[in-house]
Amino acid sequence: MKDRIKNQIELKSPLSRVWKALTDYQEFGEWFRVRLDKPFMPNQRCQGFITFPGYEQHKLEMFIQKIEPEYFFSFTWHPYALDSNRDYSKEDPTLVEFRLRKTEQGTLLYITESGFNEIPSDRRTEAYHMNTNGWATQLKNIKDYVEKSRL
Predict the structure, then answer these.
(1) What percent of the chain has pLDDT over 70?
(2) Considering the domain boundaries, does residue 1 fall inside one?
């Protein structure tokens, strides 16, 4: 099985707009469909509840790794961690990285999630599959969000 999910999309929106949608916790929550408890800060945990219909009872926890303005943003999390009877804190998290590059049309956004080989084997394939599909949805969500809400 592959260890990483890689995606990229060109957004017809200025780099500064895409950056704000990625790193402002409230804007991130709008397109990512999660209600988060506080702003993103390196080396701090951020958590909240998923707002996607049917998943509202599920908590999402992220540990913010790096924020390099208008270029790089990363966090770790436990992918597809929806079983309320399981303690995911004993598992290694995956690393999600967003990279931005200005283009003539707007912004090229690269999203990589890596570390799936470290997930316990009993849930590794499902987590990889669900996040592969999830990132495809999130690419559409951020595209719609930044292209419809220009500054």
Answers:
(1) 97
(2) no
Q: What is the pLDDT of residue 151?
A: 47
Tell me the backbone φ, ψ of residue 32, rounded to 5 degrees.
Answer: -85, -15
Q: Which two tokens stand for residue 13?
A: 């929106």
Q: What is the CA radius of gyration of the chain?
A: 15
Mean pLDDT of 104-115: 97
Token readout for 87 is 């303690």
User: Is 0.90 surpassed by the pTM of this model?
Assistant: yes
Domain holding 16, by residue range, is 10-148
Count of the separate structural domains present in the chain: 1
Q: Is 55 a member of any domain?
A: yes
- Band the pLDDT of 148: cuts 50, 70, 90: confident
Task: Round to whole Å and give the CA distance between 92 and 114.
Answer: 11
Q: Quote the strand ranges of the chain, DSSP E.
A: 4-11, 34-36, 45-50, 59-68, 72-77, 94-102, 107-114
Cβ atoms of 117 and 125 closer than 8 Å: no
